[in-house]
Fold this protein.
Amino acid sequence: MDKLKYVGKPVVRIDGKEKVSGATRFTDDLEYGQNMLYAALVESTEAHALIKSIDTTEAEKYRGVVAVFTGKDFPYKFGLYMKDRYIFAMDRVRFVGEQVAAVVSRDKRIAEKAAKLVKVEYDPLPALFDQMESLKNDAVLIHPDLGEYVHVPWFFPQAKTNIAHWRKTRQGDIEKGFAEADYILEDTYRVPRYAHCPIETHAAVGLCDLSGRLTVWASSQSPHTQRNLFVEALAPLGFTHKDVRVIAPPIGGGFGGKAGVSMEILAAAMATKLRGNPVRVIWSREREFYNTSQRLGVIAKLKIGVKNDGMFTAIDHRLYWDAGASAEYGANVVNAVGLSATGPYRFPNIFIDSVCLYTNLPPCGAYRGFGYSEFMFGLESHINRIATHLKMDPVTLRKKNAIQEGDILAYGVPMNPSGLLKAIDAVEKEIEWSKKVKPIDSNKVIGKGFSLIWKAPAMPPNASSAAFIKFSEDGSLNILVSGMDMGQGFLTVMAQIAAEILTVPVSKIRTENPDTDRNPYEWQTVASHVTWSCGNAVRNAAINARDQIFEIVERACDLPKDELYLKDEKVKCKAKPEFELPLKNFVIDGIQTEDGTFRGGPILGKGIFMPEFTSANSDPETSQGGHPNVHYTVGAAAIILEIDKDTGEMHVKKVVEAIDAGKAINPDLVKGQITGGLLQGLSTVLYEDMRYDEKGKLLNPNFTDYKIPTAKDIPDEIVPIIIEVPQPDGPFGARGVGEHTMIPAAPMVANAIQDALGVRIKTMPITQEKVAMTYLKKKEK
Amino acid sequence: MSEIKILLNNEERIVEVQPYETLLEVLREKLGVISPKCGCDRGDCGACNVLLNGRSVRSCLILAVEVDGQEIITVEGISKDGLSKVQESMIDNNSFQCGFCAPGVIISATELLNNNPHPTREDIKEALSGNLCRCTGYLPILEAVENATKE
């Protein structure tokens, strides 16, 4: 390969100027006209209850109210992987804050006032706030009709229970594996729910015009999937894909929370009954916490067997997930973990149960890391404890068992090329692992913690991406794709890929967020897969455009196609060095021949990508026989943590994180993911602490009481390291890194605390208070 | 309804406001100035920051009627005649990811540099500690502010 000119370079973001000049128009920044309608919601005050009656009379009479909607106006189920939600609660409510009705007015304050006049009577039912309670045989059923729900074939819901899905993975002989072990460690780890906290809350505006065409503007990671789900849900009203359009303006943070469909369906549905009027639904910060999706909580029961030489013999990992009131997206988190809960290690004998349970807390779904942060907390804690027992260095133990290319994964497929050992070595060196750090203040102690990184995209086997490339008269070009730039730099990376192949500078390329009517298909911007998947589509589109260019030149200039190549925005010919034709001369207008006629016309590149090797079909009892994941991205990280022994106050002195990006298309943006992801991960372990009252009401749905870090809470030093072991089927060898960067944060903090204080904390979050109390207890013993 | 007159981004604007309307609502919904964002509506996040007589304030916590006769500058005003040094520095350093917090951060950074042209890293952290950003881990923003003070 020639030396790369645009790929692998720290190119400045193509949307940077737009963002710092205030020009970026997010969903609620667009103009929707003077006849806008505002919707205010009536929410359930009960965690679990039958709805006895809803009286909307007073609200309807209120001056300025245009319409009032309840569940009976839209008796349609929806959901991404399982249809287990209604647009408004129908006969029962399943969590505090669930939408029961909406009041619509031209004036937002009138809508809010009138919403308070809607009277809802409930018949309370027993409510479940703990997934282990949901699992009991005599537990009240949150979804009595679960057995009838439509779902993807790789889910196994169990009728007449609260089990929305149960992923079982079995390999080898688990009993034999533990019998061979010299030491077995068994314990339970708990990780609570978390909130995504994008600074832009969810926002959607629906407009069904008088011809019956429905447009939804939404802050969304999934415009095409949203269109598909809107059509599925609203099909009884006569809508087809042709009639529905989703426009996705720039999005003010997603982190998984804006994947699939949640509140956007309200704007879509209400618009169908208020034709000609845009209907605006914007979530308040409070509602952003309790009625979009949260990260699932998990109770993980983990048992690992090991030989005295440090070789693992068996893993038994049973994970019980709190998915909340609906599991249409969350059950796929459970599924992903069920396939991957070995972590990046070789285990000859594997038993994994990953169980998705309904509770009467807010619904949970995709969150950066997709279950891996949750189970890696326990797993990576466990590995340190095993090392302590074996009197072995925890990094050495990790290296001994680290998975390598060709090793068989839990579901029976070989592991992809991986820079895991390189990453471990790089981190070990940079953090000076074997060197003890002495605190200056005698009341403080300093510990070091290590953790590996491991995650695969969780996607349907036929999730695909598509791209168009079109030129303009001056040789600049537009890339049309439907991935979302939610900050990770997707648009810039797509431009770099096309630039490399077409030799057009990134500064002459425009890529924007999509409109499903104009832009080709993309499944969703989730799973850290768009650089890889949509990157391949863009690469294919650029190659396709280049082929068209060469074909035209061959016909018009009588030069052999095989001898042509591109350089600095010009077509050149190996056989005829003096030949040179600038792209701008013909990519729209074609090439004029001697008789005055033209050859060619506008160049339009087209590319698609679908991973044709994946399959979700496997034995439901063992998960063997399919190929559910496309590849894993791996890495390693370590932390130096200073702790005040009296107050428990923690200060991160240094973090090192190495990640195998395959090929970093834009190293500066990869480093941005490391810096941002690490702080988000550190935040889940050190600060964020979600609290519910005994009736299932979230007590801290705001940034005053649910703390996320400020500029004063960042580590003293962050060292990002990029490892590049190419992914053979990735564009220029790239694979995704976005989610992975936050995964090691919690376990490496727990491991550093053990190193510093000799205490093991097995529940998240690990707040200052918890550290101080745990250490105090240890001292009293 | 009462009429207020403000100097908004160096232009005199007159607008009718309700006594309960916040400055943020009036800027976004009546004056077409959309760079201040609503991230929390209670003063926690700083996405709605604007300069009021040169000082950064949460426009979600101020009633529009309170600012009658005063001067307000938003990122539109700062960007009108070309970007400021700190904005350019933020572009060069890929400071923002989603960019939703960017206008508020730029207001805080502008206020800081107006009052203290050579801030330390700690000064910058302090000045930006009222602006929540969920994407970046803050580091690329802090570095950009630092870079803007060099030369």
User: Anything to note?
Assistant: Strands of chain B lie at 2-8, 11-17, 49-52, 55-58, 71-73. Chain B touches chain A through 51 residues (CB under 8 Å).
